[in-house]
Amino acid sequence: MLRVLFVAWLVGGAAWAQQVWDHQADRLLDLISCRDSQHELLRENLATYFFNLRHTPPDLALTSLDSFYAWLKETEELLRKERTYGSNEQGRWPSKFRNSLHHPYSDAQAGRKWHEIVVSFRRQCEALAAARPGYPRSYYVFGGILHGRFGANSDLDFIFNDPDGNPASKQFIVRGFSSGYAFDEKSFGERQARARAGELKVVMGGPVHALSGPKPWTQLNALLMDRLKGRGLKVLNTPDGWVVERSFYPERHYEDPSTESERNQKL
């Protein structure tokens, strides 16, 4: 009996902890009048920011936007003083908070943005194919989408092989709603091999996903829907746009794949 109660306590404790970041996200949504069923993606993204920032705001910081921004600024200053690889990674989340709160979006708006992204990526792939017919290109997607983090302020990041690329990579395309980074064949092949071996940190600093075949854009929708499903979110396509439903609260994982010892190293 005690063992059953102990297991129930663990499960209940984990479920409660999971909802802490969602509760904090709800507090922010209240401040911008967006706490309703039409903002599930925004809610999930805000909760994700809280989790990855690894700093818990005091209750007072969630009573007004001014108070929250003041707390974000204090947190940024603390992270800058730490000067570690971990604090450097944490430093990217405050700007995501500000962007989402300054430019909130509904699920329907996120759906329209996704359609624009897919169209943009298709045009880029077709332009590259037309420039060098028959050239065997491979594409890898990276960034927030692979973590199920997407909203109307998001874009698509990808890398690809190109004879005009270089070992350090260059932002080869910045057009529309997706950004491509070109690598020369040798350096791209090295990254491709290491990604296949499971060394995910070596390609643009995080996980990557390969898009295969002559029409890689046709695989984007299934990729995003699968990642959102992993976040406990189900997307319904309606005449009025996306409707997003919450199925469950999954266990969260930090987006930074580094170990604690790696994160504690000084810059």
Q: Name the strands of the widest sheet in spatial order.
A: 3-4-2-1-5
- Mean pLDDT, to the nearest integer, reads 85
Topology order in helix (H) and strand (E) letters? HHHHHHEEEEHEHEEH
Sheet with the most strands, sense and barrel status: 5 strands, mixed
Helix count, DSSP H or I runs of 4 or more residues: 9
So what's the overall shape?
globular
Q: Quick one: CATH class of the largest domain?
A: Alpha Beta
User: Which percent band covers the strand fraction?
Assistant: 5-15%
How many domain regions? Answer: 2
> What is the number of strand segments?
7
Uncertain residue segments: 1-17, 200-204
Secondary structure class reads: alpha+beta
Name the helicity range: 40-55%
Radius of gyration: 20 Å
Distance between the ends = 51 Å
CATH architecture classification name of the largest domain: 2-Layer Sandwich
CATH fold topology of the largest domain: Beta Polymerase, domain 2
